[in-house]
Amino acid sequence: MYKILLKEDLVPNIHLLKIDAPAVARKAQAGQFVVIRVNEKGERIPLTIADWDREEGSITVVFMEVGTTTHRLAQLGAGDFLASFIGPLGQPTHIDKYGTVVCVSGGFATAVIMPIAREMKAAGNRVISILGARNKALLFWEDKLRSVSDKLIVTTDDGSYARKGLVTEPLKELLEGSEKVDRVIAIGPSIMMKFCARTTQPFGVKTIVSLNPIMDDGTGMCGGCRVSVGGQTRFACVDGPDFDGHQVDWDLLFARQRVYLNEEKDSFEKWKCACSEAEAKAAR
Amino acid sequence: MAKLNLNRMEMPRQDPEVRGRNFEEVALGYSWEQAKEEASRCIQCPKRPCIEGCPVQIDIPNFIKAIQQNDPAEAVNVLKNKNSLPGICGRVCPQETQCEAVCTLAKKGAPVAIGRLERYLADWERLNGGAKKPELAPSSGKNVAVIGSGPASLTAAADLARMGHGVTIFEALHVAGGVLMYGIPEFRLPKEIVQTEVNFVKTLGVDIRLDSVVGKMITIDELLSDGYQAVFLGTGAGLPMFLNCPGENLNGIYSANEFLTRVNLMKAYKFPEYDTPVKIGKHVAVIGAGNVAMDSARCALRLGAEKVYIVYRRSEEEMPARREEVENAKEEGIEFRLLTSPKQFFGDEKNQVKAMECNQMTLGEPDESGRRRPIVKPGSEFTLDVDVVIVALGTTPNPLVASTTPGLQTTRHGTVVADEMVGKTVKDKVWAGGDIVTGAATVISAMGAGKRAAADINRFLGETNRS
Ligand SMILES: Cc1cc2nc3c(=O)[nH]c(=O)nc-3n(C[C@H](O)[C@H](O)[C@H](O)COP(=O)(O)OP(=O)(O)OC[C@H]3O[C@@H](n4cnc5c(N)ncnc54)[C@H](O)[C@@H]3O)c2cc1C
Ligand SMILES: Cc1cc2nc3c(=O)[nH]c(=O)nc-3n(C[C@H](O)[C@H](O)[C@H](O)COP(=O)(O)OP(=O)(O)OC[C@H]3O[C@@H](n4cnc5c(N)ncnc54)[C@H](O)[C@@H]3O)c2cc1C
Ligand code: SF4
Ligand code: FES
Question: Which residue from B216, B189, B210, B8 is spatially nearest to B105, judged by alpha carbons?
């Protein structure tokens, strides 16, 4: 059992958990992930490591509520326990002195790009971050990300805050501008990563994306997480999750992410029913 | 000489029609009367070939004799002297190629049902108060890290604990037991039985740390400099092989490892009570004909498939699965498509597999494995409509540990090089045994390797004491 030390609601549907996991904290590196199970009947799901504290022995994850497991997770708070917390898994993001690095993030991924931006900066890069959100209410950690970036550009889809539009627009302007961009890291919803990769491709700037296929074990034993990169089948959990965005077969990734759509819907309906029953009972 | 009794006692089993739709155990086990009757067939022959046929040399004639003499407790003692996991072995060992193959009565076509008697005794013990805690040697003050918790590791850990050493098991998954938990299904090996054995190992003082991926969370070298004087690697052969043919990444195509893990470990057959889903096919093709393939096919049937095919490129004779499971599968209505090899898969607009193109094969000259090589019959292509495919071609060791352990040597098949007898690797203080050394093999061979390695580790730790 792994104790939750802290819970913070970053925006209504994105939450932060700090978990007591000294063995994982000792080894965690930027870009790696953990696999968690909420309870004994729960599914194993992967979450990226957003931060770690080796002294305190803790790991921080940030997640968005999408289906049964993430909703269940959102109901827990400090003092509660997770059934499993396994990691650090996957290859760390390659950190080096490249020159100018652009870190693009969207949605919950602002949290997971934080340690990467921080390490890139520490390695002596000039870091330009682009942070996208659907609207102002869903934006978080702007200041935190600014503190590890030489420059920060914020966009909202609806223009409710900062620049209106998608992250690909400022990305394209940067690539067209006078400053040479040496590397792009894009993390967020798959569709956003695909379009970032498509934006940078004509400029020939290496673009690293963090793929999120469905995973079970996260250690290379099932092959459920297979993705196609450069025409080759790779297991995202052990060969990745970072890959060259220009080489990824995006359509395959999208299709494989949807394999359990119907089952997920059933599971979520059942979960919602159980929740409203519990609420009704509590009200009586 | 008394007349030989050649009526091998049938194993009572669930009716095929019924069991094909549930996950409860298929074989129901002998009653005491049936066990006695079967034991009475053993002629206590002087040559006792069965002992040599057993990979861990159980004193078979003597445990059978104890049953003949109405003393199941003594029979258990004899059995457990050599095999600490009889409830498991009695259910999953390929007896027909081991002890029963060489039984004197096998020449008459009716070997003593040694495996069924073994199972009977293990169940008797479980229901009659369980195992006595054996005497532990006084503490040696030495610690051994055991990596993985499959049969090789459980056996090594239990023996080392008995010898007085501190033992910690590090297991990557959230449950201990290895393939016995995530691979072999409930209807063939109830998980409660595996957990009884795991708990027994715990009562010996073995500390089991789950959720611990060695190579990621901690490395072998760190363990060795962190208070462990020796390491045993029993991480198995958990890396699935694929066909590498077109269409293999379509939705609905699973490795057997993924399919079985979802069903057995994550209990997808109880979805949505359990959260993990699995695709329930109407027409399911399982590629391969080993135990893994039979288990996958029978799971798919129990989930509700209308038709399940075993697609195998050689003939019945070469099928590597346990005889009994092939028979069970046939009875349950699994359709065998032999001398058939998949060529490619076709999907629909949602990337979901819908059909599979196959070739018919013929058998040529024997290959390096001694089995006749399958050859494609030109122009024999045909298609099967399928919506779930399970690839059960075998597994190789996961490179995770070897790649993070400098000094270990691996073969080109990814197995770790270790002494055949005692399991010592070329790296100082590190032993290995089970599927990680042999490639996918059997429960009993993994146990044997764990046992021999434990003895050698004990010898090594004793020597370090004196120096
Ligand atoms: C390496 C990696 C890192 C990730 N990091 C984060 C993170 O830091 N924060 C975050 O909010 N999300 C992250 N995700 C996605 C997260 O794992 C899914 O949102 C979560 O599994 C959804 O589970 P659910 O039961 O709530 O939803 P469901 O209703 O079960 O599924 C919703 C969608 O989530 C995806 N999904 C479902 N099960 C899995 C699974 N076992 N593995 C992966 N994806 C699945 C599917 O595409 C599915 O359509 C990451 C995914 C991967 C592969
Ligand atoms: C579906 C199926 C059916 C089978 N049927 C039979 C049968 O009927 N009869 C028979 O005799 N044999 C059968 N076998 C084969 C038999 O199960 C194996 O040969 C045996 O389990 C091997 O034991 P092991 O201890 O070497 O490894 P495993 O049982 O594979 O256990 C290895 C353990 O190590 C863990 N591990 C791996 N990597 C790490 C790591 N980096 N850190 C920590 N832990 C790790 C794994 O999670 C696993 O729990 C079957 C196998 C399968 C898959
Ligand atoms: S070989 Fe057969 S008959 Fe002879 S002792 Fe063994 S079990 Fe009995
Ligand atoms: S999640 Fe199972 S191999 Fe990657």
Answer: B8
